Amino acid sequence: MNHLPPLVQKLGYAGLIPFVGLALMVQLAPTPLNYLSAESLAGYGAVITSFMGALHWGANLHRLGKAPTGDRWGDRNAWIWGVIPALVAWVALHIYIPVGMVILASALIIQRNIDKETYRYYFSNEEAFSAFMTMRNRLTIVSAGCLIWAALVILFIQN
Fold first, then answer.
1. How far is it, in rounded angstroms, from Cα 77 to Cα 101?
2. pLDDT tens digits for range 62-72
3. Which H or E element spans position 127?
4. What is the tens place of the pLDDT at every residue in 29-60?
5. Residues near 111 by Cβ (< 8 Å), separated by ≥ 6?
6. Which residues contact 144 (CB under 8 A, 6 or more apart)?
7. Which of 6, 16, 107, 144 is the most buried (most CB within 10 A)?
8. Number of Cβ within a 10 Å radius of residue 76
9. How far, rounded to the nearest angstrom, does the alpha carbon of residue 101 sit from its chain's CA centroid?
10. Contact of 131 with 4, CB cutoff 8 Å
């Protein structure tokens, strides 16, 4: 049974449209539109990578002003982990675009692997957690796949 609100699902999956559309344009559009599409895809990948890290801050805002709980994740680590993806994404935007795309794809995959354990802190219902992670897995596979695909097109197919 799916426990995600339809709006959450629609917004989540709609977020894949720029990944797929821009990756297609990197491969199929004429120059210079293909290069502009690559820059745009890297930028969008960086935004989404940063957004995924920021979810940890959002989930922990309710703890501000309260006494520490003794929970290392909530009291300290979630705040630190929440900013690391933004820093990685920022660096990825300042290097050769296909390499940056691979870094962004790797960051999304690494985030997903860490988040599958840490999101448990934010869900009180196992079914909702499972439904969210199912969506998250699909979103990560497609977004990372598009970034890697576009990087490979730039490196090996385009002249």
1. 26
2. 878 888 788 88
3. helix 126-152
4. 999 999 999 999 999 999 999 999 999 988 88
5. 49, 52, 53, 85, 140
6. 105, 106, 108, 109
7. 107
8. 11
9. 12
10. yes
Instruction: In whole angstroms, give the CA distance from residue 128 to residue 74.
Output: 20
DSSP result, 37-92: HHHHHHHHHHHHHHHHHHHHHHHHGGGTTSPP-S-HIIIIIHHHHHHHHHHHHHHH
Angle (CA) 27-28-29 rounded to 5° is: 110
Handedness of CA 37, 38, 42, 43 (dihedral sign): negative
My answer on whether omega of the bond before 32 falls inside 30° of 0, hence cis, is: yes
What's the pTM value of the predicted model, to 2 decimals?
0.93
Measured distance CA(91)–CA(143) in Å, rounded: 19
Minimal CA–CA distance to 106: which of 37, 25, 49, 156? 49
Backbone angles phi, psi at 3, to 5 degrees: -110, 20
